[in-house]
């Protein structure tokens, strides 16, 4: 892997995840009871042997940079290994990052200094497990200038992705970003082949194309909209089928873009399924994160004699359920659920306190929020939207600073 450098794009605004991104970058949003979203991409790098990683940050990056420092200072700089946060620095002009391609263009000097022959470009805001080595091996074996990881999606969902067509050798023949009428697979009219935003470039190709793109007055400076479509004609651009890798990671082939409140909520709830579609428990592919030293979670009888109960829930360290109930929910560290409080189908971030007799249903509650005793949230949308944010599918988000009725 000495010939490889990895770039993780982690500078997006994340406006569709607001208010969870009010004070943090999207890759730093908590997920699954103990992780941050970016932990999944970084874990894939760790297990794939990618030891030179640049994380390009921009908006509200303090929480993300702190997490990288506390949880991901795992590589040895003396061996040329690193995970380095690279903030936007206006190195090529007076603009911040103008798009995914421009973000890397503004840091080409770092890639050139690395001496790498291949560049792995990843997103910091997707939930999945993947061994990147087989994809890199395919890239080298085919002599590709660009390899794009892809997966089949329903045609009804394909307009949210870059959609491609390939030949029998998996060479990409066409690519269209977020098409209104996506081209289906030849053998299945209900499916399309979609880009996952995972790319491997040969260094020379990447440098040439980014320099061309920087000079264009009409470009959006985006890989999906500009770079990939231009590369297809006359270039060696191939697709790599996600989930086909014969490697160490189990083949759950789960991948989610958690860019909206509803997709984020559903991806968390997926972990509570009877048979979770993503295996978090594969012992040789553990998802790494920063985890503070906390006491074990416990249930406690309240002074009123009620037992603390949790059913089908993820319960993290430091959680106390004192005479309350949590069902089908995800509780981050140091959550406390008090007597007669009920939490259903909800995600409570670190340090949330649920007051006595409160009821939460279909909620996401941000860090350190105190829910007053007797509060009812998630049962009356008309009442909820007066005080809180509601997703298009009715998930209630309670943010720090929100007022209660």
From TrEMBL:
Class of this enzyme: transferase
Cytoplasm recorded as keyword: no
Enzyme Commission identifier(s): 2.7.7.27
Domain Nucleotidyl transferase residue range list: 6-272
Swiss-Prot/TrEMBL keywords: ATP-binding, Carbohydrate metabolism, Glycogen biosynthesis, Glycogen metabolism, Nucleotide-binding, Nucleotidyltransferase, Transferase
HAMAP family: GlgC
A Pfam family recorded for this sequence: Hexapep_GlmU
Pathway as given in its UniProt record: Glycan biosynthesis; glycogen biosynthesis
Binding sites annotated in the UniProt record for alpha-D-glucose 1-phosphate: 97, 162, 177-178, 195
GO biological process annotation, one example: glycogen biosynthetic process
The protein, known as: Glucose-1-phosphate adenylyltransferase
Function (record text): Involved in the biosynthesis of ADP-glucose, a building block required for the elongation reactions to produce glycogen. Catalyzes the reaction between ATP and alpha-D-glucose 1-phosphate (G1P) to produce pyrophosphate and ADP-Glc.
PANTHER family: GLUCOSE-1-PHOSPHATE ADENYLYLTRANSFERASE (PTHR43523:SF2), GLUCOSE-1-PHOSPHATE ADENYLYLTRANSFERASE-RELATED (PTHR43523)
UniProt-listed InterPro entries: ADP-Glc_PPase, ADP_Glu_pyroP_CS, GlgC_bac, GlmU/GlgC-like_hexapep, NTP_transferase_dom, Nucleotide-diphossugar_trans, Trimer_LpxA-like_sf
Quaternary structure note: Homotetramer.
Family, as annotated: Belongs to the bacterial/plant glucose-1-phosphate adenylyltransferase family.
